[in-house]
Amino acid sequence: MTKLLERYPLGSIGIFLPLWIILYAMLQPFADAVVSLTELTAGDHLTEALRFFVFEVPKVLLLLTLVVFGVGIIRTYFSPERTRKILGGKSLFVGNVLASMLGIVTPFCSCSAIPLFIGFVEAGVPLGVTFSFLIAAPMINEIAVVLLFGLFGWETALLYAATGLFIAITAGYVIGKLKVERFVEEWVYEIHSNATGLEEVTPLFRQRVKSGYDAVADVVGKVWPYLLIGIGVGAGIHGYVPENFMASLMGKSAWWSVPVAVIIGVPLYSNAAGIIPVVHALLEKGASLGTTLAFMMAVIGLSLPEMIILRKVLKLRLIFVFASVVATGIIIVGYLFNFIY
């Protein structure tokens, strides 16, 4: 199968794309048919929870597959080495903007935070620019955008991406202005580059397409359990939690809800696949958009495991500054959208 994809990349896309469209068009009839087979009473809590789950699981998986495939191809144009070259030597604000944009399409996970950080330091990338990249990469990834698009529409997905970019750019710029290089562990600056001087090999188009398929197998293969758990929790909230209860807890009238949502969100580490279906259900039950966005950004962007990993290269003071600046930006965004919407 892999050799076939490599040999006929365009042909494989021509087969799978129409199949994807057909399956997506059948989602609602499929969900209705599954619910009707159970003979549950329409409108019951269990019926609505089941309908939510049966419809959202294949919908999100289909959307995720399509977008991860596209981003997998795009990422072949932005290796970590090329990213460092692009960001090296840029002024602070310009570098913050470029780093935040590149963070969206460049491979990143918590386990790669240290080698990426060290590589950026070696390449002479300013510390504030590096933090813009580290903030944007996990927060505004393809999983978050596609799930938001699938569950809420393009307006909310665009809103989330724009606010995430704002936080990444602003937080990185502020950290850069604070001149906190002395809070990086000394051994990081003692490492010398191990670059071999070899030029990067430009992959052929069929190899880029294969990278797209590999990305689907890797990303979807890893996140589907979190996706099922998240949608399951969301289905329970959708079917059983009273609207008045959630509105009083996370509604606009509760002025304290935004900072509390951020505080709660940091230790509740999850990826986008697990948390966004929960967010969908919270909004349906009366939670305000700003509070919910703040909660989601804290869970994804202020990952406790990532901060623990970064402790190997950053002193506690800099981790505290990083978390405080990002949390402040998230809280401001939460209050802003509660005020607007």
Structural commentary:
The chain has 341 residues and is mostly helical. It has a domain at 80-190. It is 77% helix and 0% strand. The protein has 18 helices and no strands. It has helices at 2-7, 9-25, 27-38, 45-75, 80-87, 92-105, 113-122, 127-139, 142-152, 154-177, 186-190, 205-240, 243-250, 257-265, 272-284, 289-301, 304-310, 316-340.
Order of helices and strands: HHHHHHHHHHHHHHHHHH
Question: Helix/strand/pairing class, anyone?
Answer: mainly alpha
Low-confidence stretches: 193-198
Strand content: under 5%
Report the biggest beta sheet as strand number plus sense, adding barrel if it closes.
none
Mean pLDDT: 76
Give the structure's gist in a few sentences.
The chain is 77% helix and 0% strand.
Helices and strands in order, then pairings?
Elements: H1 2-7, H2 9-25, H3 27-38, H4 45-75, H5 80-87, H6 92-105, H7 113-122, H8 127-139, H9 142-152, H10 154-177, H11 186-190, H12 205-240, H13 243-250, H14 257-265, H15 272-284, H16 289-301, H17 304-310, H18 316-340
